[in-house]
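Hey,
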Amino acid sequence: MFGKLKIGNSMKIENWKLKIILISLSFAFWVSGISASKVSAQGLSLGIYPPLLEVTIQPGKSITQVYKLSNGGETDLAMTSLIVPFEPSDEFGNI
């Protein structure tokens, strides 16, 4: 009624399809490995010393303070300093 079932030919076809899929996936991984380049994280690592300065000076007197800026990153940076007046919003110095 339905004819003979040929298991041998269907196994050959399935193996052939599996081989094509595996070869295609291998090629895709190989190509993606070639086009991938080394990636490194970039970030800023800046420091200022001293981080906190508390002084009390008399009216009419002045002070001088030297600050040290530290660049712990891998790239050169150009920095400009600017002194601006501010008032802290709490006792921890938050602005």
